[in-house]
Amino acid sequence: MEEVKLLGFWPSPYSHRVIWALKLKGISYEYMEEDLKNKSELLLQYNPVYKKIPVLVHGGKPIAESLVILEYIEETWPKIPLLPKDPYQRASARFWVQYGVEKGPILSSLFTSSEGEERDKAAKEVLEVLKILEIQGLGNKKFFGGETISMVDIAYGWLAHWFECIEEVVGVKLLEPSTLPGLHAWVQNLKQVPVIKENLPDYERLIIHMKNIRVRMLSNHDSHV
């Protein structure tokens, strides 16, 4: 098999999407940790457009952007599929992945918001987006893919770990049994899947990392007010 490499960054949920997909499919790969403050020549060579991680390198050919990489992995290694065979179900899965992309700015607004009214407004908007995802996307299923995890579960996997960190850092709780019972149960189920459970960044280390980012963001925001 041609050599597979992954250029990633330890706290990145986008890197972890690719890690989960590769491990679910049993694909051997070499992981290469990037220092985003001092990007390697390899990263700049393989992703000259965005200069970002993750980048999957397969047989010397680079593929960038996590969701594009997931599609590439699915097509290249079709065993243990992450998308359903039925065309309609496959289209539906892609719809919900795209929903996360479209609503990304709203979902990230909770982390980037300042205290007070701005944070409360962001929390309300995020809750509305997640309720639609829960009712219309997840429904009564264990996973978005039914009884096994799919590309949709991988795409939203950051909710099962990173979002908890955001809630703690910001001081808001949204993903609770009382507010989002379906998504809350989904998070618990997802975190019990061995590939997910065994490949999550250390929670306390991630909290420190995210607190530092938020402090810098808010200080920059205040300096421009």
Calculate the terminal CA-CA distance, rounded to whole Å: 55 Å
Largest sheet: 4 strands, mixed
Class by alpha and beta content: alpha+beta
Name the beta content range.
5-15%
EC number: 2.5.1.18
Catalytic activity: RX + glutathione = an S-substituted glutathione + a halide anion + H(+)
Domain GST C-terminal: 86-210
Enzyme class: transferase
Describe the secondary-structure layout:
Layout: E1 4-8, H1 13-24, E2 30-33, H2 41-46, E3 55-58, E4 61-64, H3 66-76, H4 87-102, H5 104-112, H6 117-138, H7 151-155, H8 162-170, H9 181-190, H10 194-197, H11 203-223
Parallel strand pairs: 1-2
Antiparallel strand pairs: 1-3, 3-4
Keywords: Transferase
Family: Belongs to the GST superfamily.
Enzyme class: transferase
Features:
single chain; 225 residues; alpha+beta; Glutaredoxin; Glutathione S-transferase Yfyf (Class Pi), Chain A, domain 2; 2 domains; four-stranded mixed sheet; 11 helices; 4 strands; globular
